[in-house]
Structure of 7-carboxy-7-deazaguanine synthase:
Amino acid sequence: MTSERSVEIRVSEIFGPTIQGEGVLIGLPTVFVRTGGCDYRCSWCDSMHAVDSRYRDEWQAMSTEDVWREVTRLSDGKPLMVSLSGGNPAIQPLGGLIDRGHRHGYRFALETQGSVARDWFADLDVLVLSPKPPSSSMETDWQAFDVCLRMSGGRPQTVLKIVVFDEADYAYAKAAAARYPQLPVYLQPGNHTPPPADDDNAAIDIDGIMERTLWLVAKVTEDRWFEARVLPQLHVLLWGNKRGV
Ligand SMILES: C[S@@+](CC[C@H](N)C(=O)[O-])C[C@H]1O[C@@H](n2cnc3c(N)ncnc32)[C@H](O)[C@@H]1O
Ligand SMILES: Nc1nc2[nH]cc(C(=O)O)c2c(=O)[nH]1
Ligand code: SF4
Ligand SMILES: [Mg+2]
């Protein structure tokens, strides 16, 4: 049998250190490992270059060793937080990388929609579960989502991060939070001008994003939803749709 360690990881890009722009780890210096391929197709996905198989020529099959070497090169061998994102990083064999990094004091966060569970979720330091609201045009399989939570065994710090574009998304976020009252919930205003996959400098409508953020703050405060945290994508405010930041 082939051990996971010798299996190749499909990588779209590895970049950083930059700051984590979203959710519970916002502001923390981070190296990103963005894997290629996703089982979803969200209508507003801001990372289509790591989703659509039209871009698969840009993806590289890398060994755990190759990825680890690039992470240590970018961070000068100084331990930091590594964010595993994508695409859906849960469909890649990342357990060996997490083991490897942990031995050297690195920490690992993973962002996933909660459609695919892996036993190595339990080895993560932070698990960000980001179920997709109606505006994405995806359907949530809550049973699969529950398996992700179960696989984590309650070991990593686990949070919900839900993108909200409109009233229907907000209602979905409230229902998801009610389903998992033990999980901290982060509400993220959607970027309605995500980049086309082939143009990393596409303009964003910053006024529109600010407007949606203000609307979301008004919603949670008027609703007395005092457990929710509202955070914009800091990297989008700083750099727009630029890739690799
Ligand atoms: C690109 S996804 C990759 C990881 C995983 N597939 C997921 O969706 O959680 C990373 C995060 O970006 C969020 N995201 C994607 N497109 C967005 C957009 N247009 N506006 C705001 N957040 C977005 C996703 O909801 C997710 O929380
Ligand atoms: N700075 C920065 N923060 C991020 N948080 C989540 C990201 C993602 O695309 O997964 C992301 C990203 O691409 N850049
Ligand atoms: S699940 Fe994540 S990576 Fe996949 S299409 Fe949706 S936002 Fe993009
Ligand atoms: Mg992103």
Summary: The pocket of 2KA (ligand 2) is lined by residues 18-22, 32, 47, 85, 111, 235, 245 (CB under 6 Å). The first strand starts at residue 9 and ends at 19. The longest helix spans residues 206-222.
